[in-house]
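Action item from last meeting closed. Structure (89 res):
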């Protein structure tokens, strides 16, 4: 999977807070949806595991915020809500 060209310009070392990650989530999802292998995929068919793998590569700071349930679980919940996949959980 490729990394969006603009993703390389972010500071990979800077940790984010949960509120910052939640605010940035839509941008990260939009960047991922622009990748050739994601274009044309219906929202309900998007794969959270592929998104999280891309996010670890492109924005590792996105998975480092503190959370009671863990960053991955929060990101999965946000993903489900944003892609109308809430029925899976």
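Sequence:
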């Amino acid at each position: 999977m490729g990394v969006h060209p603009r993703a390389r310009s972010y500071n990979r070392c800077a940790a984010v807070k949960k509120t910052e990650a939640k605010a940035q989530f839509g941008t990260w999802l939009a960047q991922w949806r622009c990748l050739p292998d994601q274009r044309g995929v219906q929202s309900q068919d998007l794969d959270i595991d592929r998104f999280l793998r891309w996010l670890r590569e492109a924005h590792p700071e996105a998975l480092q915020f503190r959370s009671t349930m863990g960053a991955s679980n929060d990101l999965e919940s946000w993903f489900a809500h944003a892609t109308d996949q809430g029925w899976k959980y």
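Note appended to the action item: The chain has one domain: 16-88.
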